[in-house]
Design brief:
alpha+beta; five-stranded antiparallel β-sheet; 5 strands
Amino acid sequence: MSDCIFCKIAAKAIPGQFVFEDDEVVAFRDIRPKAPTHILVIPRKHIEKLADLRQADEALVGRLLLTVNRIADEQGLKENGYRVIVNNGRFAGQEVYHLHFHLLGGKAMSWNPA
């Protein structure tokens, strides 16, 4: 998608502070972090939001979550814990319409949405 900022970051047309990348997944630091560690994990494939996932994306979703876990381990977040957030649509607070997982850690989280 030519006007998607996350597609442009994944293609390196816009700089990003990458922490991981492979053929299907890219992870980079959020430019407006909400925690000491705030990393966005995205598919290279443009999918607008969680609700747009299809059965054909099953393996990709697993790969995204395993990448979140791998990065959390590499960032030293596993022992104390971390939060993973996916916003789906406007009412949920989604600002960029490219599926992304927020990995937050490095501090105690004060708000428990569950």
